[in-house]
Amino acid sequence: MSERDVQRVIVIGGGPGGSTSATLLARQGFDVTLFEREVFPREHVGESLLPASIPILETLGVIEEIEAAGFTPKYGATMVWGRDPDPWSWRFAETNATYPHAYQVWRPTFDQMLLNNAERNGVNVRQACRVVDAQVETSEPTSVTVESADGRQEVHQADWIVDASGQNGFLARRLDLRTHDEFFRNLAVYSYFHGADHLPEPDTGNIFIEAYEHGWSWAIPLPDDVMSVGVVVDAAWGGAQLAERDTEAFYREQLSMTGRTAEMLAPGNLLESPRVIRDWSYTAQRLVGDGFILVGDAACFIDPLFSSGVHLAMSSAVLASAYVTSALREPEMRVPAAEVYSQLYMQQYHQFREMAALFYASNRTSDSYFWEARRIVQHPDDISPREAFIAAVAGQPPQGYERVVLERGEAPADFVEGVAAVETERARRAAEMTRLIDTAWPDRSPMLEAVPSLADGVELARKPVIGDGQFEWGAVISSPSRPQGAPISMVVAALASRIDGRSTVRTLLEDLFTGVSEPQRVQLLPGMLTALRVLYIDGMIAYWRV
Ligand SMILES: Cc1cc2nc3c(=O)[nH]c(=O)nc-3n(C[C@H](O)[C@H](O)[C@H](O)COP(=O)(O)OP(=O)(O)OC[C@H]3O[C@@H](n4cnc5c(N)ncnc54)[C@H](O)[C@@H]3O)c2cc1C
Questions:
Q1: Residue 41 DSSP label
Q2: How far apart are CA 542 and CA 494, in angstroms?
Q3: CA angle, corner 104, sides to 405 and 343, nearest 5?
Q4: N or C, which terminus of the chain has less Cβ within 10 Å?
């Protein structure tokens, strides 16, 4: 621990992950310095956002600025994929009433807004400063060596380092933590067009994704009549082609093989030479170490099919800032909260991975190498990511395009059946609960005479849970399909821990409420019945004898 009064955090990288974590850590009162090797605004691919990021932008206090920036509102996605040769559209409003739209953003401006906001929140932002060396997990104090544009090097000590260096993955590479995902060995070639045709209303602001013989293309409408356009092809095949050909000729040839995208681009002009970027997915074997944490693409990257990168960067940054706050203020939290951070981030990552893998496997329109190789759905060895994905698709608020995978992607039968079974069971349980709970007169609810038991494999544990900007000890209930668990209040945990498969809810509550006054019991009862209802619908409670 440092002798300084205010603990010092160093953030590597000023993309969405770095700016978000730096802002939130500065708000916690830490002395935060962010080193960014470029001078903003800098070029960056990845313009299409998800509605799930909007609450984070609200928390950061930048949503008004983003709304006023004139970015394209994105209400959904339009695709040519799978059995239907015609474009079909998917709208966020179908599953997300609170946040029915996101934005297609010009990344140099968007990233600059987030970085400026970090500075306004007290972060010492140092641009044109590349981190070239780091001391972590050695006998030396934790530090980074930073090289500025004039070649001068400085060593900066830190109480904690947040690595948000994007695909560069500064610490993951140094510590040899990166594992590539063999299934998503793709590369992208992209550029920008001016004056291309847009999709017709109401889909004008949508991202347009089109599967074609050698992969798929994206077209993202940006302000000022600019369109971000890219093709994603197999990394080995594309690499071999590009070794022999001019990049622009390859890019134009691939685009000419698409159907609708080529039509849309016909009136447009290419604005700049296309760039090539490897989008080969990877994860880091460890996301947290003694004195460091990995955020966003520095930790893991998943194929861009579902526009998940910026959201994963910002949501992992929210979790990481909570982690660093807890790790610095309550050192005994370091190990257990690191486990929770990794579990929560990997859960989101695997959800997008499953979705992309199923979607790739479902396109049966072409027999090219690209599609043949992606038809076999590959899963990590243990079954839990698939089960967790089914649980998420069937009953949780969507992060992105989960329902598209089911409804349009010709997903494998076992997956479709799995989701349908979970949904049918949830609906049945919800209906049963309506019968068992009397909302007008809770104390007359038939549920009070029911006997609950915990489902197989359900566990209650004391774990770090996200509190107000940091992790705090709380209760978590988990099951085999939800290994990461769901936080529950201490009083609900106390009730759940009494469930023995023999006692009625009335008996359990009487035991729980020992010593509690009658007016307080009356006040607590509806909340306890609601908690039991939710646990039942979620499958944590298995069986009721009435
Ligand atoms: C082809 C393709 C298409 C994509 N499309 C989308 C999309 O439509 N929507 C979406 O949400 N995501 C998309 N993504 C992913 C998205 O761009 C990234 O996931 C996102 O930018 C990650 O944010 P980050 O903050 O982790 O990293 P970045 O945004 O990459 O920021 C990292 C920063 O760290 C800096 N840096 C690196 N090394 C150092 C160092 N040593 N010292 C100091 N600074 C350093 C870099 O200059 C950079 O500014 C796409 C990705 C690819 C490859």
A1: S
A2: 18
A3: 55
A4: N
Report how far residue 190's alpha carbon sits from residue 232's, in angstroms, rounded to the nearest whole number: 9
Asked whether residue 388 carries a pLDDT value surpassing 70, the answer given is: no
Query: Which residues surround ligand 1 with Cβ inside 6 Å?
Result: 12-18, 35-38, 44-49, 130-131, 164-168, 170, 188, 230, 277, 279, 296-298, 304, 307-311, 313
Mean pLDDT of 408-414: 68
Q: DSSP labels for 382-437? A: SSHHHHHHHHHHHHS--SSSHHHHHHTS---HHHHHHHHHHHHHHHHHHHHHHHH-
DSSP state for residue 15 in the 8-state scheme:
S
Ligand 1 centroid to Cα of residue 507, in Å, is 55
pTM: 0.91
**Residue where the block lists tokens 């940006």:** 222
- Name the pLDDT band for 402 (thresholds 50, 70, 90): low
- For the stretch 288-300, pLDDT in tens is 999 999 999 999 9
Ordered by where they begin, the domains of the chain are 8-72+101-180+282-345 (3.50.50.60), 182-278 (3.30.9.100), 430-545 (3.30.390)
50/69 Cα distance (integer angstroms): 17
**pLDDT tens, residue by residue, 195-251:** 999 999 999 999 999 999 999 999 999 999 999 999 999 999 999 999 999 999 999
Joined together, the tokens standing for residue 379 give: 């899963």
Q: What is the rounded CA–CA span in Å between residue 202 and residue 48?
A: 17
The residues facing 232 across adjacent strands are 188, 216
To test the ligand 1 pocket, which listed residue (35, 36, 50, 60) has its Cβ within 8 A of the most ligand atoms? 36
pLDDT tens digits, residue range 118-155?
Answer: 999 999 999 999 999 999 999 999 999 999 999 999 99
Q: Which amino acid is at 308?
A: S
Mean pLDDT of 78-107: 85
Which residue minimizes the CA distance to atom 35 of ligand 1? 13
**296: CA distance to ligand 1 center in Å?**
8
